[in-house]
Amino acid sequence: MRQLDLEWFRQIHIGLHHDWLDPFFLLLSYTGLGQVQAIAILCLWAKQETKRFVVPLLLSEAVSGLLISPFLKNLVDRPRPSNLPWAHPQEAFLEHSFPSGHTITSFAIATTACLMLWATKYRKLSMLLFIWPVLVGVSRIYRGVHWPSDVVGSLFGGVIAGIVVYLALPDSDNAAAQQVLEHNEAN
User: Fold this and answer.
1) What's the pTM?
2) I need a labelling partner for 88 at 20 to 30 A (CA). Which of 31, 97, 142, 173 fits?
């Protein structure tokens, strides 16, 4: 597993690297920051049709980013690939590699949103939400601060957190979100 992690890290961090891609992966990385995610989610409050998504999505972010990620980082205490002598990290992190906080929160938010949209006409479109956390995960490897296995583990952690939050929602919240979307479709 270590050898596969090392090879995939090298392929993405070194093999994919081009100076012109740096701003793209920096921007993607920023979208995985909790503060940026919270601001984006709070912007949903501006429209009546999307207000019902705010609390569940913020809960997904909080559960994954404030509970699961710090707990696992301290439990696993894995060194980051930025410690490798040939790595060129674009951020100054050296420890607590697993899981990727950016990736776990992105997957949790995408999962909860997808589940909330699943019973609507946006079902197929909701699956496209997962492109974002995949790209966030790749950006963390590209920038030299996470192993590929950190990102894969974060995928599972984020999806589980998103499902748990969704299942913990009162049925009325899910039904209300669906009614709002259906009302929006009719107009």
Assistant:
1) 0.87
2) 31
User: How far are the Cα atoms of 9, 32, 107, 179 from residue 15, in angstroms, in the given order?
Assistant: 9, 23, 25, 47
Structure tokens belonging to residue 15:
């093999």
* pLDDT tens per residue, range 27-84: 999 999 999 999 999 998 888 878 888 999 999 999 999 999 999 999 998 988 888 8
For residue 24, what is the DSSP state? H
Domain total of the chain: 1
Q: Are 57 and 113 in contact (CB under 8 A)?
A: yes
Establish if 19 belongs to a structural domain: no
Q: In terms of residue numbers, what domain contains 152?
A: 2-12+29-84+95-186
Interatomic CA distance for residues 75 and 83, integer angstroms: 19
Burial of 133 (0-12, 13-18, 19+ CB in 10 A): buried
CB-based burial, 134-160: b 16+ in 10 Å, e otherwise: ebbbbbbbbbbbbbbbbbbbbbebbbb
Residues 6+ apart with CB under 8 A from 166: 56, 60, 111, 112, 115, 116, 174
In a domain, 22, yes or no: no
